[in-house]
Amino acid sequence: MPKLFLAILTIHFFISSQHLSTAQDIDIDFALSGVFNDENGDGLAQAGETILFTATITNTGTQTLDSIEVFDINNFGSPDPKFIFGSKGPIYNLQVNMIDSTTYVCLYALSIYDILNGKVSYAARADVDYIDSGGSFPIPKTLHFHESVEVNYSSAAATPSNPMIETTEGDVYINEAKNGVILKSPSGNCFRVRVEDNGTLRSEPINCP
Q1: How, if at all, do strands 65-72 and 50-59 pair?
Q2: What is the CATH number of the domain that holds 128?
Q3: What single string gives the DSSP state of each residue in 21-80?
Q4: Does the reported pTM lie above 0.85?
Q5: How far is 46 from 182, CA to CA, in rounded Å?
């Protein structure tokens, strides 16, 4: 019996420490933005350059929001998943009409796939936790809000002038690459990548051209 009393006391403390609301009290304005950083100023995007993603959340409801989390949602089945806000947040104690645009801010480094695609599309979900007092007993619930953003940029790989290189809808075809393809990593190191006849990829470090 003492253990049961302790469990009831713990649940009561958790609920009483939250703001009691109904679904009609809870609402947010959820916006995503992405800004490409042309770090070398050449007007073209290269792998390793970045996009600054920001999630802006405004409490447009009538109650203080105790906990808001933003999740990446476009990673399942994607050939190039985007992990943007996984290590950020949550937002706590967001008062009515207050705006938070600093908790979920993250730099994303462009990949080779992004360069070939000529754009980055990103989607996220904001979860708002609250205690619903509309029924017989207060119950913890979560509301979900979805948003997406697309960032476009120009890249040399997207408009190649070399007839040996062809691109279409994000795919690239190199019809003559006997020695391989030289790629530069985000840290500035260069590697020669080539494919063997059995489909195996081989990579070796080289001096950057």
Answers
A1: unpaired
A2: 2.60.40
A3: E-GGG--EEEEEEEEEE-TTSSSS--TT-EEEEEEEEEE-SSS-EEEEEEEE-S-TT-SS
A4: no
A5: 13
Task: Tell me the two tokens of residue 133.
Answer: 């007092």
7 and 107 share one domain: yes
Amino acid at 150: E
Tens-place pLDDT, residues 22-51: 667 889 999 999 999 999 898 999 988 999
CA distance 72 to 83: 6
Same-domain status, 137 and 181: no
Only one residue has tokens 């947040």, namely 89
Range of the domain at 47: 2-155
Q: Which residue among 123, 140, 155 closes a domain?
A: 155
